């Protein structure tokens, strides 16, 4: 017994509806976390996160590196993050983009440090993975790259500070190589999206929900 299954429902709405079914108040629009107590070690940087849970959702490292190189040429600081098992893509991205060690946060940094990095970022660029949701929760502008799964199921809420790139069609989210839809996204697409984002606003500031 439980609520009716809706295959095309956004996961955020699905889980909130399930909680409400069992009497737990859950608002799918209540997404923000309080600001971290820890200061960001890289305030104002553009954060790139090349990892994802499955290869099908991992945009190629060389494309992230192209974005990083272009942003640094414009005078922007770029940092890269990665989970405990994502050392290889983090290291390859850092090497290709010639990032200094101070801008590399691999190895799965503690959550408070990662949260501070995200909350203090100018923008976050990642695939369809957890750090994109963390950025949404800190009201930080995002460019999220979707491949096998469309943003209507896992994407950010509709807001000018969140841009989801997806060209379709849907594919296998558990595939062993980057999904063809994901590969249709180019570095220029990402750079263009970053240029269309509004400035980051902290929760509580005017214009932030």
UniProtKB/TrEMBL annotation:
InterPro entries: Glyco_trans_9, LPS_LOS_Heptosyltrfase. This is Transferase. One of its GO terms (molecular function) is ADP-heptose-lipopolysaccharide heptosyltransferase activity. SUPFAM superfamilies: UDP-Glycosyltransferase/glycogen phosphorylase (SSF53756). One of its GO terms (cellular component) is cytosol. GO terms for biological process: lipopolysaccharide core region biosynthetic process. The lineage of its organism: Bacteria, Bacillati, Actinomycetota, Actinomycetes, Kitasatosporales. It holds the Pfam family Glyco_transf_9. It comes from the Bacteria. The keyword Glycosyltransferase applies.
